[in-house]
Amino acid sequence: MDTTEVYSPTTAPNPKSSCFIIPSENLEMSRFVIKVFELVLSFMAFILEEVISSCASCSALYFFEFVSCTAFLFTLLLLILLSTPLHTRVGISCWPSLDFVYTCGIALLFFVASIIFASDNSSTTMERSAVAFGFLATVMFVVDVILFVKNRGFPFKKDRMPESSNGGPVAVKAEPEMEKLNVPDSGAQ
């Protein structure tokens, strides 16, 4: 008897053996794609800002540089951690909250940096392009936050139901009974 006839219908490759695990419990496929767009747009904003050779008022340029570089590097780190098994080795258990706070914070910082840089530049083509990519990256971070809330809800909500573990029923704590059962009468012993 040939072994392929016996084992082929019942065996399948292990989907968890690959380097990237998408979708996972922390990252859906749609948010993975959005995060890749965030990476590309923040990197483009950073590169275009770096090409600028002179500036009239450099503080807006430097703030935009800091935000775009930070957004690129930390989003890359977060994307690698959430889409690989590495997130289990870091020791952080609140990945959804961390992802939500990070994405909201970078969206706000990118928006502020883009506004400041748009209002205080020499209006060269490179500066306007960097600002445009800054606003596009901001839009992607906002879309990521919206998808997060739509798919998972607000992560800091107090009245969330506990999630089931391993497909079993959700354990709900029962209130203690007010009356005790089988209480012996004082005269019935």
Keywords, separated by commas or semicolons:
189 residues, mainly alpha, elongated
Distance between the termini: 74 Å
Biggest beta sheet summary:
none
Number of alpha- plus pi-helical segments? 6
Strand content: under 5%
Overall average residue pLDDT: 82
Number of strands: 0
Shape: elongated
State the share of residues found in helices, binned by percent. 55-70%
From the alpha carbons, calculate the radius of gyration and give it in angstroms.
26 Å
Structural class: mainly alpha
SSE pattern, N- to C-terminal: HHHHHH
Low-confidence stretches are none
Question: How would you portray this structure in words?
Answer:
Helix content is 59%, strand content 0%. The protein is mostly helical. The radius of gyration is 26 Å and the shape is elongated. The model has no long low-confidence stretch (mean pLDDT 82). The protein contains 6 helices and no strands.
